[in-house]
Design goal:
homodimer, alpha/beta, 434 Repressor (Amino-terminal Domain), Rossmann fold, six-stranded mixed β-sheet, 18% strand, elongated, DNA-binding
DNA sequence: CTGAAAGCGCTAACAC
DNA sequence: GTGTTAGCGCTTTCAG
């Protein structure tokens, strides 16, 4: 089928292209009979407006660029779902870009994004993305950052306060006399780890204690499990906090192999989990992070910025909920 | 920053816009001094070619539409990674679309895709997608289908032969005298299940046996685990084959709760697994499905179609490898 | 209410 | 080698 343009439709309907344009854009000024004639021509010819041409004419592409870290979509999957659902409602398309730590050149991706003339960019990243933001800013591209608290002119963010989450968790345990609380490093999410550590420190300080139970995973270990297997030969803790369920599982397996019973001898908590956490035994106590909402809210925020609606809160903090499961005792 | 166009660059460099166009497209006819002047102007003004305008002028957007099922990116994540890596090499962008069974209107998505004038579409789907294909075909949009064997004019596919995988697996067990082999239904992947069932039947028939061990999950059960918990109260099998590791885990948990030891009393195998399979205990024996390659090869095929390179095999079958782990005995 | 015409930013003949 | 110009398909004043 030859790609049919607005001209052919106009000719078929015996009107000018301006009228066709009005019809496809739902302008109410077109008289009913003309409109119907045009609509019939559209259907007959199988005409589909060329979004690229529209984009050029309007300087508006109705597509949003999305940047996420590569690797496992296990955790970002829900975020993307939330994002796409809202995007669909507002008729936005999503252009997907991933970055791989140390491999992908972020600047190159930002370059591609600027050239593609997306209306806005949503960035999900553990990393600080100041450079990308300021570059994007120079080209007047609105930005929503997920998982980092930041804002500015045409820059919003949606995040969960991990620092507070860990702070409260530690406080609760400290109140119950549990003081040997270890925090496991997440090498893939350095920034998140930093916030978690800050939370732990703050809780301990509040109780007049010093915090120094950070389990760092040596660079030479490719998997944290390998390291932990060795680690638990001569280390014990009352509670270990991990970022992700996969890491908590590594802790769990390594501990058990060393005769540590969970949760009797040692408790385990993770921050973000996946659907797998409902299937494994024991199930891991975790925070319920509203991943879907993280995406949905971000996209909604983006549409607001693009339609110049007022954004009341440029740094939107979503709430979490601690869910006790089988790897923790009940106090 | 005002969005700078090719005109401004031309003016700044003291040349015509045609020359600027030549420079940004790497045309070799431009004399070095002129080229340098243009390049300096580009840098000075921070000019980024407008891909939308280029797209309109060339009738070519260098973006590919990707349609995947929603929900778990757990299994599609690797496919997407493969796809994106190759797309990046060939300078293609990816427009992401998801479909949710019974919720998203596929036709509407195809409509959006046609309007967006992508150069091609890659569809990952368990479902038969004939309707979408023929519609896309009418608009001359090349298609690559992942996970379904199908081909035609401007239609290619990349898949793994699950039927054969199950056929061979069953044959191996039958040869060892194991005859009570059950196959678990995957409600989310009806088509895949169908192929698996076909493979099992073929194997049994080859041995002169009839196959009738299909575990259907009643519609009223929201999770297969709930059903299986009950099922294993009065059912025993030598081997249960599931599609995904999550389903195999449901089998595992349900069986154990009913006093069935794995693998001693019952073995379990799944077709596709995730990174979680390396963390759980016992680890589930599975086929190694080349998910990343499924994506990478598809994208490569797409670039071939778009550049009119010859495609020697329009229905590309990728290989799998059975990997024995802790849920199976060694024969 | 509808049509004519001037762009949107870029590419690709075709001149010179 | 470089410039001129006619589109690519659509939107949007501005007339009528």
């Amino acid at each position: 089928m030859k790609r049919v343009t607005i001209y052919e439709v106009a000719k078929e309907a015996g009107v000018s292209l301006a009228t066709v344009s009005r019809v496809i854009n739902g302008s109410s000024v077109v008289k009913a009979p003309t409109r119907i004639r045009v609509e019939e021509a559209i259907k007959k010819l199988g005409y589909k407006p060329n979004a690229i041409a529209q984009g050029l004419a309007l300087s508006k592409t109705t597509t949003i660029g999305l940047i996420i870290p590569e690797a496992s979509f296990t955790y970002t999957g829900q975020v993307i779902n939330g994002l796409l659902d809202v995007a669909r409602i507002y008729n936005y398309n999503i252009m997907l870009h991933t970055i791989t730590e140390g491999i992908t050149d972020v600047d190159k991706i930002v370059d591609v994004i600027i050239k593609s003339r997306v209306d806005g960019v949503i960035i999900y990243s553990d990393k600080i993305v100041d450079d990308s933001i300021s570059l994007l800013n120079e080209y007047n591209i609105p930005i929503v950052v997920i998982s980092n608290k930041i804002s500015g002119d045409s820059v919003c963010s949606v995040y969960v306060d991990f620092e507070k989450a860990i702070y409260e968790l530690c406080l609760k345990y400290l109140a119950n006399g549990v003081k040997d609380i270890a925090l496991l490093e997440d090498r893939k999410n350095v920034n998140t780890t930093k916030f978690m550590l800050k939370g732990a420190k703050r809780a301990f300080e509040k109780e007049g204690l010093a915090y120094d139970n950070f389990i760092e995973i040596p660079k030479e270990y490719r998997s944290s499990y390998k390291f932990l297997s060795k680690y638990f030969k001569d280390h014990r803790h009352n509670l270990v906090i991990a970022n992700r369920d996969s890491q908590a599982m590594a802790v769990l397996n390594a501990a058990r192999e060393n005769g540590i019973r969970v949760p009797e001898d040692m408790e385990i908590v993770c921050v973000i989990d996946t659907k797998y956490n409902s299937m494994i035994r024991p199930t891991i106590s975790s925070f319920s992070i509203p991943s879907y909402d993280l995406g949905a809210v971000s996209m909604r925020l983006m549409t607001k910025m693009l339609q110049n609606e007022e954004v009341e809160d440029k740094e939107k903090c979503l709430s979490y909920l601690f869910t006790s499961r089988e790897t923790t005792k009940v106090y």
